[in-house]
Amino acid sequence: MTTTHLHYIDGQWQPAQSGATTPNRNPADPADLIGLAAAGDSADVAMAVAAATSAYPAWRNIPAPRRGEILFRAAQLLQARQDTLAEEMTREMGKVAHEARIDIQKAIDMLRLMAGEGRRLHGQTTPSELPDKHCMTVRTPLGVVACITPFNFPVAAPVWKIAPALVCGNTVVFKPAEDTPLMAQRLVEILAEAGLPNGVLNLVHGSGLAAGEPLASHPDVALVAFTGSCQTGRRINTLCAPTFKRVSLQLGGKNASIVLADADLDRAADCIVKAAFAQTGQICTATSRVVVDKRVHAALRDKLLARMAAVQPGRTMGPLVSKAAMQRVLQAIEQGQQEGATLLYGGRRETVAGTGKEPGWFVQPTLFDHVTPAMRLAQDELFGPVVGLMVADGFQDAMAMANGTAQGLSVAVHTRCINTVFAALEALEAGMVYVNLPSFGAEVPLPFGGTKASGNGQREGGTACLDTFSAWKTGYVDFSDRLQRAQLEA
Q1: pLDDT band at 359 (very low <50, low <70, confident <90, very high)
Q2: How far apart are CA 277 and CA 291, in angstroms?
Q3: How many whole angstroms separate alpha carbon 274 and alpha carbon 269?
Q4: Confidence at residue 358, expressed as pLDDT on a 0 to 100 scale
Q5: Which 8-state DSSP code applies to residue 317?
């Protein structure tokens, strides 16, 4: 019997009102039908928002420490089921087992961090300019929060939004990526088991057009928290503008790893291979450009090539998430060759299966040389296992190349000079800079997000995310028993 991934609305699992479903298939073996997901539309969204709206007054009045305790229980449940969930994630989304476990661990860490915030949620106090007057700030919830999340971190990315939203006292409507409905279902099951009241967290499956747009534009939604492409982020921003709702956009990156002439080339090569091909390059902070000083270009190129054979589709690297994603990446590889870049390694679909069935959506790890700033390989986020070498003439040229894209999410810098480290930190236009590290590896206590077209300035992670999911309220209390004169009054 085929499993159906249902909506979860007001504490009840239910099909789409239309009865429509979409197939959920294993990207490593498209013949493997995991289940059928409810195909939500505006009617399902309306029900979910209504449930969240109804649950909001009671939920916001539950003390924040109690809300945090529910998140902590969810973290314990996730940890207990980590291995089983990782196996299901590998089957549904394609990332290899250890990457799936990392995904779940990031969610566990965020749940624990936000559980602790339930006993803080600090405001401020400041001395008044008048006697017998108290000045303070407190955080207040916003209302109904829409969390629209991507496929690439199907547990961690939702938790990075849902956990702070809930601990701040908001209710949530969660629309996951179409490619990962099972992981969304498992996460909601755990949060419900941890003790969330009915209506506080609601799940609606469906496409961006049919379910995402009605959710983003719904007048009773106070905040839309979205992670995905720049193109979709612009659309969501437009949908939110008429009602002046808050928007948190975590968008794409065209991230560079900069290798300067004094770098440890072996370490840099190890970091680049990890950052370019982990999770098949389907990470918004993945390295897709290597900006290398011309004095060490040839040596670094050879070291990268020597490491490429260890990246094996179907063993150490998973498939792309869908056939459409694979076709998009293969088209970009072809265009890169047409534009004059030199293909050094890979560049083709990998037919791993060999069983007579259609193989999965595997693409070979791919390395280009002689990529120039105007090429698509240097400008577009491909979200696949493709990286290009760009040759720089010294530090200033390397900084200009790294900054020469519309996005500004993450950059890695490889150097042994402490002066160069701080000069790069000053010069680079990015939300995150990694020194002698891969271009990813965000830790939950610190803010996550980018500059330029990589987002609208909001941050996830750390305590900075609380500013996204709550509002400041300022209180002035006069206990002088008289009308006091303020500044500049005679």
Answers
A1: confident
A2: 17
A3: 9
A4: 73
A5: B
| Catalytic residue list contains 284 | yes
Q: Which residues pair with 413 in a beta bridge?
A: 258, 435
Q: Do residues 114 and 107 touch, judged by C-beta distance below 8 A?
A: no
Q: Which CATH architecture has domain 255-435?
A: 3-Layer(aba) Sandwich (3.40)
Q: Are 285 and 439 in contact (CB under 8 A)?
A: yes
CA dist list (Å): 25 to 35, 294, 327: 7, 45, 17
CA–CA separation, 176 vs 193, rounded Å?
Answer: 19
CATH 3.40.605.10 given to domain 4-251+455-474: yes
46 φ/ψ sector (left φ>0, alpha ψ -120 to 50, else beta): alpha
Q: Which among 5, 9, 7 is positioned nearest to 144, based on CA atoms?
A: 9
* pTM (predicted TM-score): 0.96
Give the three-class secondary structure for 227.
strand
Q: Name residue 172's amino acid.
A: V
Tokens 């003390």 -> residue: 63
Looking at residue 151, what DSSP letter applies? S
Q: Domains of the chain: which residue ranges?
A: 4-251+455-474, 255-435
What residue type is 282 in one-letter code? Q
Q: What is the pLDDT of residues 392-404, one digit of tens each?
A: 999 999 999 999 9
Catalytic: which of 147, 168, 271, 284? Answer: 284
Q: Among 65, 41, 165, 150, which residue's Cα sits nearest to residue 471? A: 165
Is residue 77 exposed (0-12), middle (13-18) or buried (19+ Cβ within 10 Å)? middle
Distance between CA 16 and CA 91 in Å, rounded?
24
Which residue, chain included where needed, has tokens 């006292």?
Answer: 169
The tokens describing 143, both together, are: 């209302």
Ranges of beta strands (E only) in 186-251 are: 201-203, 221-227, 246-250
